[in-house]
From TrEMBL:
GO terms for cellular component: membrane. Keywords: 4Fe-4S, Iron, Iron-sulfur, Metal-binding, Oxidoreductase. This is Assimilatory nitrate reductase catalytic subunit. Residues 5-54 form the 4Fe-4S Mo/W bis-MGD-type domain. It comes from Pseudonocardia autotrophica. It comes from the Bacteria. GO terms for molecular function: 4 iron, 4 sulfur cluster binding; metal ion binding; molybdopterin cofactor binding; NADH dehydrogenase activity. InterPro entries: Asp_de-COase-like_dom_sf, MoPterin_dinucl-bd_dom, Mopterin_OxRdtase, Mopterin_OxRdtase_4Fe-4S_dom, Prok_molybdopt-oxidoreductase. Residues 689-713 are annotated as: Disordered.
Amino acid sequence: MRPDDIRTATHCPYCALQCGQWIGPSGAVDARDFPTNAGGMCQKGWTSAALLTHPQRLTSPLVRDSRTAGFRETGWDDALGRVAGRLAALRAEHGPDSVAVFGAGGLTNEKAYLLGKFARVALGTSQIDYNGRFCMSSAAAAGNRAFGIDRGLPFPVTDLDDAELIVLAGANVAETMPPLMSHLSTARLVVIDPRRTPTAERAIASGGLHLAPRPGTDLVLALGMLHAAVVDGHLDLAYVDDRTSGFDDAWRIASQWWPERAERVCGVSAADMRTVVRLLATSSRRYVLTARGAEQHAHGVDTVTAWINLSLALGLPGRPGSGFGTITGQGNGQGGREHGQKSDQLPGYRRIDDPAARAHVGAVWGVDPDSIPGPGRSAVELLDSLGRPGGPKALLVFGSNVLVSAPDARAVADRLDALDLLVVADVVPGETAMRADVLLPVAQWAEEEGTMTNLEGRVLRRRRALAPPPGVRTDLEVISGLAAALDAPGEFPADPQLVFDELRRASSGGIADYTGVSYARLDAGEALHWPCPAEDHPGTPRLFADRFAHADGRARMVPVDHVEPDEDVDAGYPLLVTTGRVLAHYQSGAQTRRVAELAAVDPEVFVEVHPDTAARHGLADGELADVTSRRGTTTARVRCVPTLRTDTVFLPFHFGGAGAANNVTNPALDPVSRMPEFKVAAVRLAPATTGSTPGEDAGPAAKPVAHAGGSGV
Ligand SMILES: Nc1nc2c(c(=O)[nH]1)N[C@H]1C(S)=C(S)[C@@H](COP(=O)(O)OP(=O)(O)OC[C@H]3O[C@@H](n4cnc5c(=O)[nH]c(N)nc54)[C@H](O)[C@@H]3O)O[C@H]1N2
Ligand SMILES: Nc1nc2c(c(=O)[nH]1)N[C@H]1C(S)=C(S)[C@@H](COP(=O)(O)OP(=O)(O)OC[C@H]3O[C@@H](n4cnc5c(=O)[nH]c(N)nc54)[C@H](O)[C@@H]3O)O[C@H]1N2
Ligand code: SF4
Ligand SMILES: [Mo]
């Protein structure tokens, strides 16, 4: 028997690079050659199998009769019956918007689609949103505004292979997508990041530059660079005339931001701005890529817009061998925002307030379009409304650990405590799961079928290599079972292929059109990037070659101006904190803190501080510090980093409890995308008042996990 007969081809469960994986019959993971990862995986991918048989894995539905009582195991019928009964009672007494749903960009396309339909049809609630609001929503809004479409990378990752120059604004890909670095090896890199990250080190080694702006001032940096582009004669006039609109309005603002003036705000030298603009303008194959560092701000949409305006002025988007793109984050960060789990959206990237969209989707769902609720609250606003008068009294969470990952975590804890009912579907007992009234154990990536849409808009097959442990159900089975228990109208199949075929019909004619993407074509190895409007359509690996997606075919340069971060330093809070990721941990850490090899790399939360700043605050390397903002405190071990700005400290957000970075973050929202300002808050630093960082929660179900074994397909 050939090895491929017994091992299954799938993709890593974690980030949007979706590296190719093999999974053997006993669950062993190996790297699989795929264009995005070129045979590589990061440490998280290599160790991903550890959670399949982890002693803390959830393997039975758990319920409790009060928040102070412990969990006890129960059967699925009892668990789903309880949830359905409580939801029905709340709806009857308080109306459908008294129940809410929170989804995630890690869910497969099928789950995201069925969850959105479940909320609107089975629960009849407008109150659904997802953690993608925390993720790429500002770039999504900026992309829609500028290009008329939101696809993270409008070209395949492999197009970067022979780039001459790549500007990375707020992206630390050497840690967040390590195998992506193999596509950046020929290019000279320019990294824009307040910290000297491993990616910034690579930029310097490549003969490029590291520009370290003050957190929250990229917009001014990009305006200063647009100014330099025009004044130094680098504007691509023919492109701007042919392919864009709005230059004059954008220039009216940029003309006031000569580089020396921008330097005074962002701290990057005018000379460096001019150098980068010259490099960008004179390289023949060049890209500007953004990620969360540019986006997670109260003015993130405008900040990404400023980077797009610069790219348009230099003629990058849609030109062969050049472009602008945003690196998505979660495994299905792209697909997760296309199929209707967003509060303002229906499948196919349609707007929920568009009558034609409602008519189309109502017909696919077999319901009266007027019965589909209107837009609901965005993620942070939804969390903030829980248990308040007029707000939801029940919350169903699929695939997010909001207690650790949402801004102002203390306030989130209060809101969860104010609920009548919290239901969490998860694979491990993370912090949010531990607060649930009903905890539903679900299958993991290696145990289920589905599709994911990666950072290049390519639809990929997730395949089942193993049967889930007895007692565990797939998310689709859970949603389908709940719909049945609620006597919902319409169909809620648990079979992923049936769900996907319905999703294709629902997406038909929409912006994110998946009509022509089928399991059969994907399984035959076709590389299908959406839009793919028909079975005989080859898909669209590259967008914008001839036209942008606005009706007039032009990209829009939207005028944007500098705005200070929502919170500034003062005598009480003299430093800025920014937050982000480290290589070994993923997101809220619910999964990776439970993997021994990864926990060994970074076992506890730390705070990066410049040695002078540490000394000024009576701290030394290795000591515990309290990082305190107007909202709360994060207790973390000091890591002295001589390359860091002296006005800024950095916290990774992968830890919970007293070590949660989100104890200090600011829930201020971007007015357009409703994305929170994770990347800037004012804090003070002091020696910790407690002696140790918080330990791990053992969870309720520490027992060995048995797989049914075999391929189980
Ligand atoms: N190891 C690991 N990899 C991951 C993830 C993970 O949790 N761990 N998560 C995945 C997901 S969901 C996402 S969204 C991506 C995120 O991938 P990235 O966006 O690369 O990750 P972050 O660390 O959030 O932010 C990138 C950088 O922005 C910088 N930054 C902070 N403030 C500013 C600013 O004002 N301007 C600029 N220019 N930069 C700033 C930070 O110092 C940080 O180094 O990673 C994905 N991959
Ligand atoms: N301070 C700060 N906060 C941030 C960020 C930051 O940069 N700084 N980044 C933000 C970003 S970009 C993101 S994407 C969010 C992410 O943060 P979260 O939304 O908390 O994401 P995860 O930690 O991936 O949570 C996933 C949870 O779902 C479970 N899970 C995994 N797969 C599945 C599945 O298929 N089904 C179900 N039902 N459960 C599953 C996991 O075990 C875990 O408990 O954090 C945001 N928070
Ligand atoms: S880079 Fe992302 S997809 Fe690839 S192995 Fe690491 S976590 Fe998985
Ligand atoms: Mo993300």
